[in-house]
Amino acid sequence: MKNPDLDAEPRKRKPRSKPRGESTEQRYARLIAELRRQFRLGSALQLLEWDQETLMPAGALHERAQQIGTLAVLVHEQQTAPAFLALVDELAADIDQLSSAAAVDVREVKRHLDRERALGTDLVRARSVLQAEARAAWVSARRENDFAALAPYLEQLFILQREVAQAIAPERDAYDVLLEEHERGATRAGIERTLQELRDGLLPIIQRLSAHLEGHPPAVSVLCGHFPLDAQRRFNRRVVETLGFDFNRGRLDESAHPFTIGIGGDVRLTTRYDERDLRCGLFSSIHEAGHGIYEQAFDPATLGTPRGTACSFGVHESQSRLWENVVARSDAFWRYWHPRLGESFPSLAGCSFDALLLTVNEARPSLIRVEADEITYNLHIILRFELECAMLDGSLTIDALPDAWTELSDRYLGIVPQSHRDGVLQDVHWASGDIGYFPTYALGNIYAAQLWRAAELEIDSLENGIARGEFRPLVNWLRENVHRHGQSLTPHALIEAATGEPPCVGPLLEYLHRKVDYLESV
Ligand code: ZN
Known about the structure:
Layout: H1 24-54, H2 61-79, H3 82-93, H4 100-118, H5 121-144, H6 147-168, H7 174-180, H8 188-214, H9 229-243, E1 250-254, E2 260-262, E3 267-271, H10 278-295, H11 313-327, H12 331-344, H13 353-359, H14 374-393, H15 401-413, H16 439-458, H17 462-467, H18 472-481, H19 491-499, H20 506-521
Parallel strand pairs: 1-3
Antiparallel strand pairs: 2-3
The structure holds zinc ion (ZN).
């Protein structure tokens, strides 16, 4: 080890990372300090965005866009500063001298930077301009139900994302490269196999559901009526807090599209309420609380590092869906909340437990992904995955997309959209340039079912506890088996370590069969 001599080196004209004689540990300490600085700058940026979605007066939009733009440039400059890049490269070259924890940070930062660096400034600029324009075009195209208005943007976005993939890894499949941005280690072939298995396994479940629905028109939901906003806010806060979200280090607010941000000791959830339907706010609050409980898990000592960052989009989504679906639609969950519902909403004081449970578990094929039930949800993802793969490899033209959408919707869901708004224009993802994002939703469902099964085996009478309002054992199990790993493991390795099995669709399919068993029994 060389003698550390932090202050002796005079500044050089050519950027370099290290003062001469600095040890690997010292360089690593500098990396952490730098990552933390970048994280804090990024946190300020996120807070501005959060404010824009929740509280900001409409008239502030122009100046807010400038504020966000200014900070975004600063963040980008820090992340691409030559001295910082050199520091990461030097540490990566000496990675075997680092502890395994430190090596995780270096490996993941380097992986991220290598992707960024592969993209020239022109490509980065072209992409962000096109994404901003396409998003705006999507908003009006959706409003006007006008696919032709969005088509040229989609066309360009798919071309540009092919270029991006080509720049990052010319020898690899373009979809693999884009997918990896959202799910480390995942490949198109792997996702294809998984979704194929899921589709095959869902077929008999959907058939059972369809046969059941023939004799059962939609029931009147007991959670529809009039539920004043203030009462909903209080009830949602109570639920989310009881699940394990810490309001000393977090908030629950409202926005048009629910989301969560985590900026160190401050995790912010948003939800959206409908005074006529209690389910809308409640399930989005619980969904976001699942994300938030994950974000609150990270050790402050790992702030801003990959070890203190969620594993992947799929794993993040597994947390939200575990709480929203597996827990919050269960018999045990409502055993606890049913009597408490009447305390907050007098109109529900006399509602029957059975009617309540049915209301939160109803399932039937529908057109809109974000409103889909647990049983049919993944078909929406399979449809999108097939279409985006075909558009990326050029076998499906953008002009032919609406017809292809209709055909798959008919094949998988048995219903077809009567408007583009309810079909191909319903999601913003493609217009945002997010290709390879949709599969992470299905992966989230798959992981959630696996995690639940493992937790059930390992936690003594988990469901009985939940029926008594005891959610801590499940939070603790997730802390130990999922949250604490940050990005130390790939999603695949994390799920295998937590559940004893690599990612697989069996537990989800069994879970969904049990849902249909339940529906058939009522
Ligand atoms: Zn989510």
